[in-house]
Each structure stands twice: as structure tokens, then as C-alpha cells.
Write a structure and sequence with these properties.
disordered N terminus, 278 residues
Length: 278
């Protein structure tokens, strides 16, 4: 059983097994779909998040767009609604890419269990394998989507917390803008809080996506299986590794986005004649 292997193998042993059986390149398995899906996910997420905030402000507060204040924009209710709305759309659109990434990353574990020679599947071959596994039904590429929807609680915590820290920083600074350090702290702390509170959905989603063919089960059955075989702490397996990976990634993503958006606002949107030239 794959779960038995996961139960027995800690991070260091699993790392050694990957190096021994798959070489150093095995540590980068799934990099191609990651490089594709992460920018696409945030490229979908951020515009929808920013676009939806004024509409939720209007819905909740009855304010016209030109009357929107900073307090409205940083409202926890507005941030929560916008984050969940944007996350739901991004998850639906990008789920196939996350599924392909997960399959490529966990392929080696199945061959460790079955003691077979492991093929070097490319992203295209992984997609073809999934398509064949689903019997030609494209819905297989949305396996694990239910767990992803459960994970909307993650952005529901992360973004209101992020907006709160940004608002505090703006009030503290004479320029009424967040510094790069403020953005670093806000993004890092908000991601840390969200991960700590909602990490189990990551485990469940990965397990559901990783199950092959006839072994595929529902999200509820997956949760029951994890708790039965590994205890409640099984839902937090790999949390420390995840934090090392996702917190710096989040900080870089958010700072890049915020500073780029600020530059566009100051040098493009406020440029004389912009309205006429659009």
C-alpha cells in the first residue's frame, strides 16, 4: 500500500530514495507543469480578486464605486468574499494542471511500492495516461476539485489577514503606502496563518489526485482512510516542508504583484492623456 510506505518513510528517507532511484532530476519531477500552472493560477486569481472587490463593496455597503474608501476595500467581509470568489474560478480552471503536477511528482512512490522500473513520463505522457485512465472522460482532469473547493477556506483566511496587515502598515506610514518590508511581513504572516489553519485540505487533495484508476475514492472516504491508518496527525503530514516551500514563494509572488501594480498605477494609469488614449 502506498499509504504504508508514506507512513514508514520520513522526509529524509524519501529524499534519499528519490535520489537513489530517480537521480537528482527526480527532485524536479513535475517542475514543468508547476512553472505553467502557478503563474496561470495567480494570473487568473489577482485580476478577479481586485475586480470583484468594488462589486462586493457595493453589495454589502451600497456605496458607489467613486465613494469607496480604504476601510471598505480592506473590510474582512469584502476580502473574504472576493478571495473565495476568485479562488473558486481559478481552482476550476487550473485544476487539470495541478492534477498533472501531482501525478508527475508522486509517480516514483508507486514504483517504489511495486518494485518496478520507473519510466520517465513527460508532461504530455502524463496527460495521455490520465485521459486513458478516465476512459476518454475529460472529467478525470477535475479529480480532487472538491478538496480544492474545501481549500477555499485557505484564501478566505489568507487574504483578509493580508489586507488587514496592509491597512495597518498604511496607517503607520506617512506616505500612506506599504513598504517592501511591510508587504513581505504581511504576505508571509498571512500565508503562515492560512497554512496552519487549513493544511489538511492540501493532504486530502494530493491523496485524491494521486489515487490511480479503480482505487479512486471520494474525498470523504479519503479523509476517513487517512484518519484510520495514520491518525488525525496524518492530515498534517508534510506541513513543515510545505511551509518552507510556500511561504517564501508567496512572499515573492505578492511583493512582485504589489510593486508591479503600483508602478503601473503611477507610471501608466496616472499618465496625462491615458484616458484619451485607451
Amino acid at each position: 500500500m502506498l499509504s504504508e510506505l508514506k507512513e514508514e518513510m520520513g522526509f529524509s528517507r524519501m529524499f534519499r530514495e528519490i535520489i537513489r532511484n530517480d537521480g537528482l532530476v527526480g527532485c524536479f519531477r513535475g517542475l514543468t507543469p508547476t512553472l505553467a500552472c502557478v503563474p496561470i493560477f495567480w494570473g487568473i486569481y489577482f485580476p478577479i480578486y481586485e475586480f470583484s472587490k468594488p462589486h462586493f463593496i457595493k453589495l454589502y455597503y451600497g456605496e458607489k464605486l467613486h465613494d469607496v474608501t480604504d476601510n471598505h476595500a480592506s473590510s474582512p467581509l469584502v476580502s473574504l468574499s472576493s478571495a473565495i470568489f476568485a479562488g473558486a474560478i481559478a481552482d476550476v480552471l487550473v485544476n487539470p494542471m495541478f492534477l498533472v503536477r501531482t501525478r508527475m511528482q508522486t509517480e516514483s512512490l508507486h514504483y517504489f511500492v511495486e518494485h518496478k522500473e520507473m519510466p520517465q513520463l513527460t508532461m504530455r505522457q502524463t496527460i495521455a495516461s490520465l485521459y486513458n485512465e478516465g476512459g476518454g472522460n475529460l472529467l478525470i482532469f477535475w479529480r480532487g476539485l472538491t478538496a480544492s473547493m474545501l481549500g477555499l477556506s485557505h484564501v478566505g483566511i489568507q487574504f483578509p489577514t493580508y489586507e488587514y496587515f496592509k491597512a495597518v502598515a498604511r496607517r503607520r506610514n506617512d506616505s500612506n503606502e506599504e513598504s517592501a518590508v511591510d508587504l513581505l511581513m504581511a504576505s508571509g504572516l498571512s500565508k503562515l496563518c492560512a497554512c496552519a489553519a487549513t493544511y489538511p485540505h492540501e493532504v486530502v487533495r494530493s491523496r485524491v489526485m494521486d489515487l490511480r484508476g479503480e482505487n479512486a475514492v471520494s474525498m470523504t472516504d479519503t479523509i476517513k482512510s487517512i484518519v484510520k491508518e495514520e491518525g488525525w496527525m496524518g492530515l498534517y503530514r508534510g506541513l513543515h516542508i510545505s511551509l518552507i516551500r510556500v511561504v517564501p514563494n508567496c512572499c515573492l509572488t505578492f511583493i512582485s504583484y504589489e510593486l508591479t501594480l503600483r508602478w503601473i498605477r503611477e507610471n501608466v494609469l496616472q499618465k496625462p492623456g491615458f484616458e484619451c488614449s485607451r
